[in-house]
């Protein structure tokens, strides 16, 4: 089924060593027409990976480095006065691309964050009196650096909800890091080439939508989401004081889409609870709002999700 996925991953692996979950998550979000937020310390190949993915998909790629002095027009574009013709002309910003890397999104002020997230949702930009549709496919990979504390504007929970997945990227293994150092020091980095057409991308999207989900698995996913809102109903009274707001309805929608892509990635024609569990953290970790009590005790959303997975009966 998903031999094209294997070809894309093999092409990306020419310059990206390891980080398989990041590559899988990028592919899932991209083919489900969602967006992804990646959190990790510098130097984990986040930029390199999305750049390689854009080349393998044969799509246009742009990178925007977010800073505290950035303006919405720096991302969207603006009307510029042309004194020669006494007219205004449109200068489009980096948002007009297929794959956009919004690097260190938490360093940009609220206006810039809102402008980007609005385009992610609406798939259009208004500059002056003209509204422009964003060319499809359109995919945003935003990154945030957990190291910096100063000059950082935390993304509001309602805006985090716009991202289909939030991935926490960790360090490579020692063997992988050794391979990375060898490749770079010797200059043995292969060129990534396009291995798929836009028509094939649309075909894969249709095939993913056709993946089957049993009613029992559908109900299981809804139960997981509901358990984050009403934990006491599932025998989880001990975590109830730690949850201020459970997962939003967008989780259910995105979960139905993402698990189909996960099954497709694994060359299956149907979804299993294993596919759901594999993506549960990435789908819900940024959509559960914890109480001050949870923060004081060092409780994380991942721990809450693990408790929910253990409590809800598997079909």
Quickly list its features:
Helicase, Ruva Protein, domain 3; single chain; Rossmann fold; alpha/beta; globular; 315 residues; two-stranded antiparallel ribbon; 2 domains; 16% strand; 5-stranded parallel sheet; 13 helices
> What number is the mean pLDDT?
84
Q: Helix/strand-derived class?
A: alpha/beta
Stretches with pLDDT under 50, minimum 5 residues: none
Order of helices and strands: HHEHEHEEEHEEEHEHHHEHHEHH
Shape: globular
Q: What is the number of helices? A: 13
Q: What does this protein structure show overall?
A:
The protein folds into two domains: 3-184, Rossmann fold (3-Layer(aba) Sandwich); 211-311, Orthogonal Bundle (Helicase, Ruva Protein, domain 3), CATH 1.10.8. 45% of the residues lie in helices and 16% in strands. The chain has helices at 3-12, 20-31, 46-57, 72-76, 110-122, 157-160, 174-186, 198-209, 215-229, 249-265, 273-284, 292-296, 301-311, and strands at 36-39, 61-65, 77-82, 87-92, 99-103, 124-127, 130-133, 139-144, 165-168, 243-245, 289-290. A five-stranded parallel beta sheet has the order 2-5-8-1-9. Strands 3-4 form a two-stranded antiparallel sheet. A two-stranded antiparallel sheet has the order 6-7. β6 (124-127) and β7 (130-133) form a beta hairpin. α11 runs antiparallel to α13. It starts with a helix and ends with a helix.
